[in-house]
Write the C-alpha cells for this entry.
Amino acid sequence: LAYPLESQLPPLCNPDCLSGANDLVALSYLHEPAVLRSLRRRFLEANTIYTYCGIILVAINPYKPLPIYEEEVIYAYSGRELGDMDPHIFALAEEAYKQMVRFGKSQSLIISGESGAGKTASAKYAMRYFTTIGGCRCDSSMEEKVLASSPAFGNAKTTRNDNSSRFGKYIEIGFSRVHVTGATIKTYLLEKSRVTFQAEAERNYHIFYQLCASATLPELQGLGLPRGGVGGCWGVPHACAVPAGVPEADQLELFSVLAAILHLGNVSVTGSVPLQPSDEALGWFCTLLGVEMVQVTRWLCHRQLVTAGETYLKPLSRQQALDSRDALAKHMYGQVFRWMVSRVNRALRSLEGHHTSIGILDIYGFEMFELNSFEQFCINYANEKLQQLFNLHVFKLEQEEYVAEEIPWVFIDFCDNQLCIELIEGRLGILDLLNEECKMPQGSDGSWAQKLYRTHGSSSYFQKPKRPTDAFIVEYQCAGFVEKNRDTSALLAELFLEEGDGLVSLQSRRSSGLRMADRPSRRSLPGSQKSKKSISSQVRAHLPCPLQFKSSLNRLMEMLGSTTLHYVRCIKPNDGKQPFVFDSRRVVEQLRACGVLETIRISASGYPSRWTYYEFLERYRALVSREELMGADEKQICSLALERLLQDPSKYQCGKRKVFFRAGQVARLEELRYRQLRAACILLQRHLRGWLARRRFGRARAAAVCLQSHARG
C-alpha cells in the first residue's frame, strides 16, 4: 500500500474486471488513482451513484432525479444480504433493519458530507425504506411529516446549496420488533446567526421569504408585512409551508412571531439616543407580541447589573444595543424552531413506545469560508467529534481488538484528531478560556485572543495569523465570540418569552402589558452568576470519564456509541451542480477528508465480521456435527467446525473470545446454514408426506377390500 519516495514509477493499474467493482476494497491495487478511476467509471459510464467501501456506502450526488427509489426497488432489496445486489442506500438500510431484528440492538446511520452533497436526500430514502418495510402503524406519511419539519424553518440558500439544512438532526425511528411505531426528531446546532446576518449571495431562512410572499392573504394582512414579497422565494411562492402537527389555531400566532422577528430587525438605534416610540418597526414588534413599548425600549438599551447591595441599570452603547436586538431575534427564532420540532414530534409520537430503534443522523460537514466565526467554530467542533467517533469505530477499536484477541495484525497508522479535540475542550482549552473571558466584567474578543496566543502558541494544532488581527487557523475571526457565547438575550428572553405549552406564551400579557413586577427576581435572574450558562458550555463536554456527558453534542456521541453504526459518505462531484459531471480534484479532496481511503486499506486487510463463540454456536449450531460438539470448549468446537466449513485458514481467525471473519465469509456461512435448515425441512416434509401418503393408501385399501368383499359376497 505504501510506495517508496524514490520510486518514480506510476501506480499500477487494476485489471479491467476489477475496475468499476461494487466494493472498492476488492481492488487489487489500492491507491488514490485506482479509487478515483473506479468511482469515475461507475459514475460516468454506468451512471451508478452508489459504491461500497468496506463498511461505508459512498453516495455521489447525481444532481438529477433517478428512477431507482420506487416501491418495487424497495421490495427487491428486502431480505437480501449486503452484497447480493448492486450498492444502494436501500441495501444499507436493509442491513441495519436486519441486524436490529436479528440481534435486538438499535442501529444508527451516520450520513455526512459537504453542503449540497445530498445528505438530506439520503436520509429521506432511508426513512422511506424503513416505513415501507416496517409497515408504519402510526401514519403512512411519516416520512413527509419528518422532512416537512425542516425545509422552510431550518433550510436556507447558501453559495453551495439552494436548499441547505442549517442544523443537524437525529431522526430516531422506533420499532416494535419489526413494525414501525413512531419517530422522534432531535435537532442540533441551529444556525441562529443567519436570522440577523447573511453572507454575500446567501439568504435567510425560507420561511421569511414565504411569509412575505403571502402577505396579501387575508389572514396575514394585519402583520405589517411588505406587499409583493421580496423576490426569489424558495418553494411555493404564495404559501407558507407549515409542517403537519401544527394546529390551524396556532398558525396565526406563529406567523405573528415570525413577522415580529422581521420587524425587530428593522428597529434602528442611532448614536446614544434611546429608541424612539415613533419607530414604526418597534411599534409593530410590540403590537404583534402584546408587550409594552416602554419596557422593550428600556431593556433593549440597558443592561441590569446586580451588585452585593443594589441593582442598577447601565446604558448600552449603540453597538451593544444592536447586539442585544440581534440576540433577542436569534433567541426568538430558536424558540420557534424548537416549538415547531416539538409539534412534529407530537404528531409522530407512538403511545405504545418502541422496543428498538434505527437512528438517522443528518448533520452538515466541516465549513471553511472566507470569514469564519463562532458558528463555524461550533459546527467544525461537532464534526471533529463525529470524525473521532468514526476513527474509534473504524480504526482504533479495530486494531485494539485484534491485539486484545491476539490476532496477527499489521498496524496501520491513521490520523487521530484527539489532540485537536483536547485543544478545544480540554483543561485551559479554547472553550475554557472563552468561558473564563465571558465571566470577566470587561471581557473582550481581543483579550481572549491574546490568552489563546499565550496558552496555545506552541501547539502544532494552533497557529496565530501572520497579519495583525484577532484570529486563529483554520482562521476564525474572534470578533463576536465573547458576546455570542454570553448569550445576552437571556434577560430579554426571560422578560418577553416564557416557555410553556404554547409557541410563545404571551396571551396572558396582551391585556396588561409587561410591567416591572413581571421581571424575574434577583435570585432567578438569568444574568446572575448562579443561573448563568454560556452557549459553548452547552456544546462542550466535561469528561471525567467517557460516559459522562453534559451537552447535547456529547449526549449524541453517547447515543451513537450505544448503537451499531452504519456510514454513508455523500460526495459532491462538482461545484456547479451539473448532472453527472465528475471533478476529480474535488472528489479526492472529500475522499481524503472523510476517511474513505484509510477505510479501504483497513477493511481489505482486516476482518470486518466478528462473533463471540457463544453467538457463533447459537447461530450456526445446525452446521456443527456431533463429533465436533464433543469438543472441550466453545472455542475448540468453533475451530473444528470452521476448519471443515471454510477450509481456508486465511478466511478466519480464532481469538480469545471471538472468531474473526474476512469479508464475505459470514454470508457464506449464512448460505450454508440456509441449505442445512432447508435440507432439514425437506427431511421433515418427506417423512410427513410419506406418513400422510401411507395413511391415505391404507384407507383406500381398506375401502377397496370392503367393496370387494361385498361384491364377491
User: Anything to note?
Assistant: The CA atoms of residues 54 and 599 lie 7 Å apart. The longest strand covers residues 179-188.
